[in-house]
Amino acid sequence: MALTSPPVSRLTARVVHKGATRARGYLALTKPRIVEQLLITTVPTMFAARRGLPSVALMVATVAGGALVAGGANALNMVADRDIDRLMHRTRRRPLVTGEISPGAAAVFALALELVGFGELWSTVNPLSAVLALSATLFYVLVYTLWLKRNSKQNIVIGGAAGAVPVLVGWAAVTGKVGWPALLLFAIIFLWTPPHFWALAVRYREDYRAVNVPMLPAVTTLAKTAHQIFGYSVALFATSLAFAYVGHMGVFYITAATVLGGVFISYAVGFWREQSASSAMALFRYSIVYLTLLFVAVMADVLIRYH
Questions:
Q1: pLDDT digits (tens, 9 = 90+) for 53-88
Q2: CA-CA-CA-CA torsion for 175, 181, 183, 189, nearest 10 degrees?
Q3: How far apart are CA 18 and CA 20, in angstroms?
Q4: What is the distance between the terminal CA atoms of the chain, rounded to a whole angstrom?
Q5: What are the domain boundaries of the chain?
Q6: Which CATH superfamily groups domain 27-306?
């Protein structure tokens, strides 16, 4: 004879399922892929700032605090954008749209992440890193999400600065200040963001038009979008090489930056020629590979030269 009756078993299963669904919803609020991307840039920056292997404890503390603050910012972004998210195909399955999480609960969750992340960075890393991380959240939510996104076709250009702040956090964690090499790394991500995001927006430009968000591909021609993407790609290439000088990088990084940047420009040219959603998505996918490998090259160069 079973110790647990079938009704109780089914009730337990429903509770467990509901709890797992709720947990996945809260995790989705943080946009894990974006957080992962931000952290991929933070750790190599710490290697460059240290010119060697940073303290493992410091890296863990910086990554943990940065992930919490970035996750909170992304959750606040979803709270603010829930009205348009339900109308866009790319975002209509987000937890605030499906009803898995209520707006109030999401806001409390986001603010808790911000508070814990800020406190963790302040107490275990340094105050400058904590302030920089919080400033990124304020800029992302107040300047980009609540103002620029719905009012300017330069929204992602200016708003993209928030996504570049983690390198400043990583540099400040090691050195206690923000130096010129950190500003060049900031500029790399700042210049990378428009072609990366505009390429994705080409595919979803009808969604942006439907919700009156003036993302560049939705308010101008693909030819003009391609022209802008090409310009930023060239500027990105030049800035990545400038970092080699300012950041005292070696042959490994210079070679990687040259090859990766050349391929990036070739994808931009490909989109300019074809002006199609498929060529835009090819550029978008490569842009993720590019940023990851470029920062891996920063870390590898440091390890090769200083160990």
A1: 999 999 999 999 999 999 999 999 999 999 999 999
A2: -110
A3: 5
A4: 65
A5: 27-306
A6: UbiA prenyltransferase (1.10.357.140)
